[in-house]
Write a structure and sequence with these properties.
The chain is an alpha+beta fold. The chain has one domain (about 1-110). It is about 35% helix and about 10% strand. The longest helix has 14 residues, at about 1-15. The radius of gyration is 15 Å and the shape is globular. It starts with a helix and ends in a 12-residue tail after the last strand.
Length: about 120
């Protein structure tokens, strides 16, 4: 099944179909939520299907935001306050590093809701 899905993803790329990376909500075997693991896995699959890292990031950001009608998000543009994630490591490590974010910025300011090392309540 995975081989067939990757073949379809390759074909979509060849045909110029605009794609967005998502977590596959409702799919068996997919980790859901904002944990970065599911997005990282999806990104790895796009790369395995032959997409460059730059194409994959575009599918995650600009295409993903456009899919949901959020044109003010997903693309760095002059004059806009940026919303972005901060991850350490080399660019090639990005999919894996989404699980270990250094920070999140929303509208040009650090997120008040994100904690790098959250305190666990026992």
């Amino acid at each position: 099944m995975l081989a067939e899905q990757l073949t379809q993803l390759r074909l979509a790329r060849e045909l110029g179909v605009k794609k967005a990376v998502g977590t596959g909500a409702g799919s068996v075997g997919i980790l859901h939520g904002l944990n970065g693991e599911s997005m990282g896995e999806e990104m790895r699959l796009f790369i395995k299907a032959g997409y460059s890292l730059a194409e994959t990031i575009r599918c995650v950001s600009e295409n993903g935001a456009g899919f949901f009608g959020m044109e003010k998000l997903g693309k760095l543009t002059g004059g806009r306050k940026a919303t972005f994630l901060i991850a350490r490591g080399k660019v090639q490590q990005l999919p894996r590093k989404l699980s270990y974010l250094e920070g999140i910025y929303v509208d040009g300011a650090p997120s008040l809701n994100y904690r790098k090392n959250p305190v666990k309540i026992v």
